[in-house]
């Protein structure tokens, strides 16, 4: 490949952002960019640390450790497998967006790059994120504009959030007492579907052919995570108030998507879980254990991507290093 990417038969690729952008960047601008990124990282770390400090000052950490030790590891392993399935489905959904803009990755290339992105997103909060990494590498390799590649990644995120919203709206029927609030949830989410369709049609028409297939795959992703949550509850022998736990869990997942913390929403998710449990009148430490076990499953699954830090995920099976 050219000077954006150099591999010397090794991975990871070295990315020359200045060469990629195609314009010289003076020292002052470069310095300001680094300072801005550093400040953003500090803020994210501060949010995560503050949330975790609050959580573990509210909850007896010893009880949490005991609950995790006593968890049924067969159920947890099953939850891990189900979560892995959700990531495989998610990678296939993202590849539909890529194919819409003529980025023709094989299924093998796509899933390997997807896992590498998961690893970067979770373990390298201060470096280039997994999503940004995919945008840069694929845009250069396939000569596709950054705008289109970024749109593919963002639309993939939005379709996931839309499906999350549908689950939250459905569970709100059984959890929330105020009918007007239920109506807001349902109307808001259902209105978001045609709104997203309209936005794609007007601004990103090249993605329109994949709208319904990606929407359905997004729903499949969230349903597998829903099953994963139930399996974690089973592992903890929690059978009472499952609907409430799951409802709060999905609200916490929505909160964790916000780019205000590190480690895939670490701290923010746990904060929402214990505060939601407190408001609902259920066991806070069980809510926290549910969140932490889900995080550990996410961590374990993302670690698979470490393989492709050292092995080029875009190399086709018939290519020789």
Structural notes for this entry:
With 321 residues, the chain is mainly α. It has one domain. Helices cover 73% and strands 1% of the residues. The chain has 13 helices and 2 strands. A two-stranded antiparallel sheet has the order 1-2. β1 and β2 form a beta hairpin. The N terminus is likely disordered.
Strand order of the largest sheet: 1-2
Helix content: over 70%
Could you tell me the strand content as a percent range? under 5%
What is the averaged pLDDT score?
A: 85
Query: How many domains, as an integer?
Result: 1
Q: Main β-sheet: number of strands, strand sense, barrel status?
A: 2 strands, antiparallel
- Overall outline: globular
Element-level helix/strand string: EEHHHHHHHHHHHHH
Rg on CA atoms, Å: 21 Å
Give the termini distance in whole angstroms. 13 Å
**Which residues sit in consecutive blocks of at least 5 with pLDDT less than 50?**
1-27
**Structural class by SSE content:** mainly alpha
Number of strands: 2
Q: Count the DSSP helices.
A: 13
């Amino acid at each position: 490949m050219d000077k954006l990417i150099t591999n010397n038969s090794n991975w990871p690729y070295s990315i020359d952002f200045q060469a990629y952008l195609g314009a010289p960047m003076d020292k002052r601008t470069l310095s300001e960019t680094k300072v801005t990124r550093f400040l953003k990282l500090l803020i994210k770390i501060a949010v995560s640390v503050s949330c975790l400090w609050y959580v573990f000052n509210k909850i007896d950490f010893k009880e949490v450790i005991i609950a995790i030790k006593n968890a049924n590891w067969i159920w947890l392993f099953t939850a891990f497998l189900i979560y892995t399935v959700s990531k495989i489905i998610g990678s296939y959904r993202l590849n539909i967006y890529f194919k819409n803009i003529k980025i023709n990755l094989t299924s093998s290339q796509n899933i390997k790059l997807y896992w590498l992105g998961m690893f970067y997103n979770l373990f390298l909060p201060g470096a280039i994120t997994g999503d940004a990494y995919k945008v840069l590498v694929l845009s250069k390799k396939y000569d596709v504009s950054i705008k289109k590649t970024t749109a593919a990644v963002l639309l993939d995120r939005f379709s996931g959030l839309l499906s999350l919203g549908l689950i939250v709206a459905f569970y709100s029927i059984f959890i929330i007492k105020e009918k007007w609030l239920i109506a807001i949830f349902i109307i808001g989410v259902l209105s978001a579907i045609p709104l997203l369709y309209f936005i794609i049609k007007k601004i990103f028409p090249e993605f329109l052919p994949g709208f319904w297939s990606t929407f359905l795959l997004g729903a499949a992703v969230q349903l597998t995570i829903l099953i994963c949550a139930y399996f974690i509850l089973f592992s903890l022998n929690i059978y009472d108030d499952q609907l409430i736990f799951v409802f709060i869990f999905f609200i916490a997942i929505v909160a964790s998507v916000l780019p205000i913390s590190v480690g895939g929403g670490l701290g923010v998710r746990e904060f929402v879980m214990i505060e939601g449990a407190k408001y609902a009148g259920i066991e806070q430490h069980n809510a926290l254990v549910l969140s932490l076990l889900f995080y550990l499953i996410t961590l374990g699954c993302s670690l698979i991507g470490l393989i492709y830090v050292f092995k080029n995920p875009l190399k086709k099976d018939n290519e020789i290093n």
